[in-house]
Write a structure and sequence with these properties.
The structure is a single chain. 38% of the residues lie in helices and 22% in strands. By secondary structure, the chain is α/β, with parallel strands linked by helices. The protein has 2 domains: 230 residues, ATPase, nucleotide binding domain (Nucleotidyltransferase, domain 5, 2-Layer Sandwich), CATH 3.30.420.40; 182 residues, ATPase, nucleotide binding domain (Nucleotidyltransferase, domain 5, 2-Layer Sandwich), CATH 3.30.420. It has a 7-stranded mixed β-sheet with strand order 16-17-15-14-18-19-20, with helices on both faces. The protein has a 6-stranded mixed β-sheet with strand order 3-2-1-6-13-12. Strands 8-7-9 form a 3-stranded antiparallel β-sheet, covered by helices on one side. Strand 18, helix 15 and strand 19 form a beta-alpha-beta unit. Helix 9 crosses helix 16 and helix 12 crosses helix 14. The longest helix has 27 residues. It starts with a strand and ends in a 6-residue tail after the last strand. The structure holds beta-L-fructofuranose. The site of beta-L-fructofuranose (LFR) has 14 residues, from helix 9 and strand 15. Beta-L-fructofuranose (LFR) binds next to helix 9 and strand 15.
């Protein structure tokens, strides 16, 4: 067989979706089936995810997928990274914490008091992000009382199949995987008081996890197989970047902008640590050497605040069109300022950041939106440049994938500010990467097909759009 259909469940921080992916003779196509909202929920003890609601949406989305394509071969799950659910006696204990909850700040201090960041970086290769799982684990009260901690996609797979595992690309974001060996760093876990028993066996993307168990099969209407994909959404997205040059950089742009290059071996130099670049695990053992830039979160939170103020919804495309025609310079701010990380009144916070830097906030919403887009683009261009410097590469093109590709103003501003050609697309890179890894595991590309073969299928189906810089350096 050279093809068939699979379902990709892709959970983002602001929305989730179920997509049907079809593969036939090396060609791939995608069809949206279900889309549902996601976001932080304020609980008595902090910010959580409404995982129970998400799981309900996943089951009903899969049911719709089966109704549309009864010959569905398998399911793959990906989501944002670092967050997890605690499982005891086969059940989820409480709703998982949201990575934007403030408890992470305490955790980082506690961990670094035991293992200074310099040492930690050499072991796990991760940039400092206050929400990395290990910082969350040390704030947990009851790790000794649970059976296992499962990252969000692993938790979904467990509820669907009963199989417990830690898919490697996402496990790499916990901070407890040794960046050189790819195995759990049990010595580090012990020093931090994380019981080894909560870390499930590591699983490779492409592994067959099992079939839906009774209850899940009944809810979905079919007894399907679940296949591990690059379950960290960014890992799946990078599978579907149609890298067009060995010196290409990529930006996976959604809530976050993940800016970096693909490597075969990690870089844990002092310079990489100082620049806060991460070595996350990619599919097929590749390294995602990248930096997190606060991406469209700044815009979506601002729009959310303006909508609350107006009591009605805002049309983003027309706001961006107005932003594009702002004829004067707008002030830039540091998109990665930690004060902009938590949910809240984003325009007021950005205004405060600008004020502290001696600049006045734009007075109209289009100019404000332009200031956000230009500031994100400036951070993107800076991170691309740094990725090149740290890996000794002359970056010659930037690929942007994900929802951010719909923001043409951002794509053009990134080209202009970097002086490099931007190739934009595909927009649904994450779901595509998810589909392609399942398809390969099912033998539809040949079991040994390299990522490059999968990427050829991406270019053929979704030729990228070019944005040329106004000037080259
Ligand atoms: C993107 C992403 C990033 C990760 C952040 C938090 O959706 O997965 O890669 O750093 O969310 O999990």
């Amino acid at each position: 067989m050279t093809g068939g259909a699979v379902a990709a469940v892709d959970l983002g921080a602001t929305s989730g979706r179920v997509m049907l992916g079809r593969v036939s003779d090396g060609m791939v196509s995608l069809e949206p089936v279900a889309r549902f909202p996601n976001g932080p929920v304020e609980g008595a003890d902090g910010l959580h995810w409404d995982f129970s609601a998400l799981y309900g949406h996943i089951l009903s989305g899969l049911r719709d997928a089966v109704a549309r394509e009864p010959a569905l071969a398998s399911i793959g799950i990906d989501s944002w990274a670092v967050d997890y659910g605690l499982v005891a006696e086969g059940h989820l204990v409480g709703e998982p914490f949201h990575y934007r909850d403030e408890r992470t700040l305490r955790g980082a201090e506690a961990v670094h008091a035991i293992v200074p960041f310099e040492q930690l970086y050499r072991r796990n290769g991760l940039q400092f992000l206050a929400f990395n799982t290990l910082y969350q684990y040390v704030t947990e009260q009851g790790l000794d009382d649970i059976d296992v901690a499962l990252l969000i996609p692993d938790l979904v797979s467990f509820l669907l199949t009963g199989t417990q595992g830690a898919e490697r690309t996402n496990a790499s974001t916990t901070g407890l995987v040794d960046v050189q060996t790819g195995q759990w760093d049990l010595e580090l876990a012990r020093r931090l008081g994380v019981p080894a028993s909560v870390l499930p066996p590591l699983v490779d993307p492409g592994a067959h996890l099992g079939r839906l168990r009774g209850e899940a099969a009944a809810a979905v209407g079919a007894d399907l197989e679940v296949i591990a994909v690059g379950s960290h959404d960014t890992a799946s997205a990078i599978v579907a970047v149609p890298l067009s040059s060995p010196n290409a950089a990529y930006i996976s742009c959604g809530t976050w902008g993940l800016v970096g290059v693909e490597l075969d071996t990690p870089v844990v130099s002092d310079a990489a640590r100082e620049a806060n670049f991460t070595n996350e695990g990619g599919v097929d053992g590749r390294v995602r050497f990248l930096h997190n830039v606060t991406g469209l979160w700044l815009l979506s939170e601002s729009v959310r605040a303006w909508e609350a103020e107006d009591g009605e919804s805002i049309d983003l495309p027309s706001l961006l069109a107005d932003a594009a025609s702002v004829g004067h310079d707008v002030p830039l701010f540091d998109a990665n300022d930690p004060r902009l990380a938590a949910p809240g009144d984003m325009p007021a916070r950005i205004a405060a950041v600008l004020r502290d830097a001696g600049a006045a906030a734009p007075t109209s919403r289009p100019a404000f939106a332009r200031s956000i887009v230009e500031s994100i683009a400036a951070a993107f261009a800076g991170a691309v440049h740094t990725a090149g410097r740290l890996t000794d590469r002359e970056i010659d093109v930037i690929h942007i994938v994900g929802g951010g590709t719909l923001n043409r103003l951002l794509c053009q501003a990134t080209a202009d500010r970097s002086g490099l050609t931007v190739l934009a697309g595909p927009v649904e890179a994450t779901a595509l990467g998810n589909v392609l890894v399942q398809a390969r595991a099912l033998g539809w590309f040949g079991a040994d097909a390299a990522l490059e073969t999968l990427r050829e299928a991406v270019v053929a189906a979704f030729p990228p759009e070019r944005f040329e810089p106004a000037q080259r350096p």
